[in-house]
Design a protein that fits this description.
alpha/beta, Ubiquitin-like (UB roll), Rossmann fold, 3 domains, nine-stranded mixed sheet, three-stranded mixed sheet, 12 strands
Length: 263
Amino acid sequence: MTVHAPGLPHPRIAQRRAAVDAATRAKEVRRRRMLWLTLAVALVLLSGYLATQSEMLDVDRLEVNGAVRTSTDEVLAAAGVRTGAPLVGLDLASARTRIARLPWVKEVYSTRSWDGVVRFTVTERSPLAALATGSGWALVEENGRVLSVEQRFSGSPVPIVGLNVAQATPGDWLEPAQRGAVAVAAELYEPVRGAVRSIQVGPEGYVLDLHGAGRVLLGDSREMAAKVLAVHTIIERVNLRCMDTLDVRLPANPVLTRRIPCQ
């Protein structure tokens, strides 16, 4: 039989109280730890936010690479990115989309670095042909899109004359009938391309005006690849001295006519 002193709690009650006190202390320790952990996470998040809004992570410099026909100012205006903007959260995808709408821009890439530099690298389109218009020459790519209108041009675009192109605006698309002449230019390859002074469009259909060597009658757009192949073969294998016309409207039976007298 267990006897305990009068006025003292029963041992079982004392043990129960001790267990409750220990659990309460443990719960308080966990609560304090959670509070400190929450404060630490909040401090880290606040520090990160303040860092992203600080001048240390701002856009300090904007660069444009690869743009020749398109000015740096045009690219940056389309991008809509300004110096001083936070680097974190900068929407470069939307900036690239806006830049890609510029007539000469074919592709655009962007990078950002933590030293505050945002770079846009542009790949520009190449004009295939130059169409005579009422105000100059419309430089056009293969798909018929107008890249620019200029008073004069140089380089590889093939001149096309005889089309009724009153005016053109960069970004415009040629009419289907006008795209046919551009498609002819797309079929040309060396040495034929280098021998062509211009493509003329008239009653005889498509005509190649050659540098100092007469004309090539292509006719309509049918069998154009075969016609260009016939021209290519004759230029490589036949003496073109005193050539007046080369008729390849029937590509299987080309006819070469020379000027008489031939001097």
